[in-house]
Amino acid sequence: MTMSDMKCSKLLSDLYKDMIEHLQQGEYAKPGGYELYCIHRDNIITQYHRQPDKGGKAEDVLEMFLSERSVEANCILQADKRLSENEKKIQEEREKAVLIEQQKKAAEEMARMMDVEKKSQQERLMQMEKTFEEEKHLQQEELNKAVNSKLAEQKDLLEKGFKEKAEVMDQEIQQLKKEKEENFFKKVVMPLVEVGKDLFSTVLQYRLVRTKSNGLKNNSTSKN
Fold it and tell me: What are 164-182's pLDDT values in tens digits?
C-alpha cells in the first residue's frame, strides 16, 4: 500500500464516521432515508475532492470506497418505503452509473500515472544507453592501453630470450581481456537489461490500464 493509498483511505474513513452514527441511529431506515443517505455520501465525496495533496491513487481509493458501500446503499434503497418500485429501479441504475463513472476516473488516473512512469523509464533507458556507449568506449581505451603495455613487455622479454616468461605474459593478457569483459558486463550491461525489463513491464501495465479505461468509456457511452 502506497502513501497515497493510506492517506486517502484514512481521509475517507474519517469523513465516513458521521454516516456510521446515522446508520447506528437508524436514520437511514426511515422513509426518505435513501435520499438522506445519498446527500451525506455526496457530501463526503465533495469534501474528499476538496482535500489537497492526496497523491496519485485518490480516484482509485474512492472507487474502492464506493464499491464497498454499494451493498449498504442498495439495502437502504430497498428498505425506503417512500419510494415506489419504479423509483427504486431508477435509483439502482443511478447507483450503477455512479460506480461505473468512478471506475472510469480511477482507470484514467492510473493510466496517467503509468504514462508518467513509462516516460520516466524511457528517459532512464536512454541515459543508460548513453552511459553504455561511453563506458564501452572508455573500457576499450583502457584495455588497449593495458594490452599494448603487456605486449611491449612481452616483446622485450622475447628479445632478451625469456620465452617462458613471455608465454606467461600471454596468459596474463588473455586474463586481462576476460576480466575487462566481465567487469563491463556486470557494471554496464546488467543494469541496462534490468532497466529494459522494468520498461517492458511498465508498458504492459500501461496497455492493460489503457484497455480498461477505454472499455469503461465505451460502456459509459453505450449506456448514454
Answer: 766 677 777 777 677 666 6
Handedness of CA 124, 125, 126, 132 (dihedral sign): positive
Q: Rounded to an integer, what distance in angstroms lies between the CA atom of residue 141 and that of residue 134?
A: 11
> For 187-205, what is each residue's pLDDT tens digit?
555 665 565 556 555 555 5
- DSSP state for residue 190 in the 8-state scheme: H
Write phi, then psi, for 153 (nearest 5 degrees). -65, -40
Quote the pTM value: 0.59
How big is the CA angle at 123 (ends 201 and 193), to the nearest 5 degrees? Answer: 50
C-alpha cell at 144: 588497449
Torsions phi, psi for 157 (to 5 deg)? -65, -40
